[in-house]
Structures are given as C-alpha cells and as structure tokens.
Amino acid sequence: MQKFLRWLAVGVSDRFASREVQDAVDLLIAEVEPKVKLLPSGRRQLRRGVRHMLAQLQEVGRLLPEPLDLSPAGYSSDRRVGLLFASPQSLCDSLRASDAIKAHLASPQSPQQLQVMLVMQLNEETRLGSQLLPDGSVRSDVPQRVLCFERHRFIAASASHEDLLHDARQQAYGLLCRNLAYGISQAESERRLLEVERRALQLQLQHKTNVLNAEALNLHGSMTPAQMAERLAQVEQALAASQLVASLQGKLKLIRQVIEAPDDFVRASLETAWVDRMGVVLSPAEGGQQLDYTNIEMGYLQRRRRVVFAANLSRADLREWQQRWPALES
Fold this sequence. Notes:
By secondary structure, the protein is α+β, with helices and mostly antiparallel strands. It has helices at about 1-10, 20-30, 40-60, 75, 80-85, 90-95, 100-105, 160-205, 210-215, 225-240, 250-260, 260-265, 315-325; strands at about 70, 115-130, 140-160, 265-275, 290-300, 305-315. Strands 1, 2, 3, 4, 5 and 6 form a 6-stranded mixed β-sheet that branches. Strand 5 and strand 6 form a beta hairpin. Mean pLDDT is about 85; it is low at about 1-15.
C-alpha cells in the first residue's frame, strides 16, 4: 500500500513499471476481494486491466480547462468563479472545510502558492424566469434551463499542477476500487436473497412444507401455483445471470471484465455550456458566456457524475477570505 502511494506521489508515465502496476493490483485486491490473492494466477490476471485503468485516469488530467482564480479579486474577475459559487461566503466556507487544504498548509515547507482540485455536482433544472424581448418589454414565466453547481469539495491541494494531478489520481483510483467492491457486495447480497426465494418457491410448489412455513417463506404474498412457477423461472434466470459472484474464480473474472473496459468504468470529457451569471443556458447571441468544464462519470453499476476544476490559490488569499467572510455561527 505504501509503495503504491509513493508511486502515485511521484507520478506515472504512459508506460508503467511492473512493480508499480503490482502495487496497484494489490490495492485493488485488498479493497475488492482479498481472497483473490489466494488464487495462483490472481494477481497476474489483473495486471493488464490495472494498466488500462491507470492510463485512463492519467488521461483525465489532460482534459482540465484553465485553472480557476480563487483569490478574492478573482471572484469578480474570473466570471467562472462567480458562476460556480452562489456567494463569496459559500466559497470561503468550502475552502475552510477542506481537509486537503488544511493538511497541505500544515507543513511549514509548503509554498505560498498552491493549486487545489475542486469537485462538485452539476444538476440541470427547468425554472420559470423572465425574458427581455427585442422591443424592450419583459415576458414573465418563461421556461429556462439552468445549470446548478452544488456540493463543492476541495479534494486535493499541492504545490504544483503535476503534483495536484497525482494526488487527485490517487483518490480517484481508491474511489474506483471501493466502488467496485460495493457493487460486487451488492450483487452477492442480491444473489443470496434470490437463492432463499428460489428454495421457498420450490418447497411450496412441491408441497413439502406445512401451511405455516409456506406462508412464512412466501415472499410475494398470496400466489397461485401458476404465478409461483412463473416467478421461479424469473428467479432461475436472475441467478444464472449472477453466476460470476457465486465463486472466487467468478469474482476474479468479473473484476477483470470491469477494469479491462475502463471506458465503461471511467468516462471524462471536456464540455462547453453557454450561460449567464445565474447559470441560465443562453445562446451566444442571447448573451451566454462560454463555460468549459471537465465532466467525469465513474462507477460500476451506480455511476457518479461530477464536474472537476483545478484552481490557483495562495496563503494570503486564504487569510483575506477568512478575514472578510468569517465562519457563520451554527
């Protein structure tokens, strides 16, 4: 684990050393299914997929737009900052709440200037607003598409842009491992429930249980024999589809399938929207200003969509933020 984290702190190239890949494989196994290491070729079978996943994460950093200016002056001069945060207070509160920034600044050797990684959730809503018509009149209750940026988090802070990408990639890789572990655990739980249901249906159809137990095992209330037979066929089909999680070899195969198709597990793109200061989507002719942002979708079974920005900040900026917008009393 420590070797892997040291490797991420140094960074990787497009060609990954064998030892570096092996450390990443060990972290994947530890998070997802520790028993895989008992299989004679378990680690070896995961190397190719891990290389693909690391290369995919490395590409994400190349899609980031120009860093944001998070200085107090930048809140006005960099129009993107004013769009992403509802108020200076909300920006200051997000900076203050970041454990990554606190940890970075805790070191006396950390420089005055730093770069941070901002992650947030993008929601698209339709609201009723007003529209200025060419003749100068205003039309009310006009449906408008609005981009809302919420749940801001500063997940990494470093002295340089390259170090920032390395730190963020470390967190992303760990998150993907945990996400895959959760997905496989859920699949196992669902399979166990299906096995219980199959046995209950089989017992009822075969009349090999008494009435009390039949009612206790009946997971669908009152059902006719025909309905139970139909449901049993559905359960058998679902169990066949979940066969991979029924054995250790099957889990290894499933992990390989996921990580060897990184485009299905991690998707990133540089998106462009045209919006006004309030997030209302407008065409350039209507006054919309260009907003470039990196959109990332990650996850196995349950996908998370997040918007990511890099940003510039300094110790002096943080002091000014905290002086001008102190923490609100709870």
